[in-house]
Amino acid sequence: MDAAAWPVPKVLSWLKLEGQIEHEEFAKTFNTGLGTVMVAGQEHVTETTEELRKAGETVYKVGSVVEGKGGGCVLKHLDAWDQTWWPFRIYMYRHPGFLPTMGRWLLFPGTL
């Protein structure tokens, strides 16, 4: 999977930055903004993508399935997660009242 292929939600970027969470731990602990991952044969990618978009879904091609030697999913370009925090940091500085309101958010298990 290519970690640069989808946007990480701002709140997760903030948590990673402020919590100084390493890439591997971040990937294990949070879904990093991916709600569902679908796998389709190459011959069905275009049709599947079109149908999902018609249904109002946002679609990102995040990787491919290749023959491996075991060990599970391989994540590439993890440094992209370090690039996602800066727009959020700028937003926080320009809107100083933003961070205190984050303390009133209700985050439920499984929503991140």
List the helices and strands and how they pair.
Elements: H1 10-18, H2 23-29, H3 45-54, H4 80-83, H5 85-94, H6 98-102
Largest sheet: number of strands, sense, barrel closure: none
Alpha-beta content class? mainly alpha
Beta fraction of the residues? under 5%
Round the Cα radius of gyration to an integer and report it: 16 Å
Order of helices and strands: HHHHHH
- What is the count of DSSP helices, taking H or I runs of 4+ residues? 6
Report a brief summary of the structure.
This is phosphoribosylformylglycinamidine cyclo-ligase. The protein has helices spanning 10-18, 23-29, 45-54, 80-83, 85-94, 98-102. The protein is an all-alpha fold and 112 residues long.
Provide an overview of this structure.
By secondary structure, this protein is an all-alpha fold. It is flat. Helices cover 40% and strands 0% of the residues. Residues 98-112 have low confidence and may be disordered.
Descriptive tags:
112 residues; mainly alpha; 6 helices; 40% helix; flat
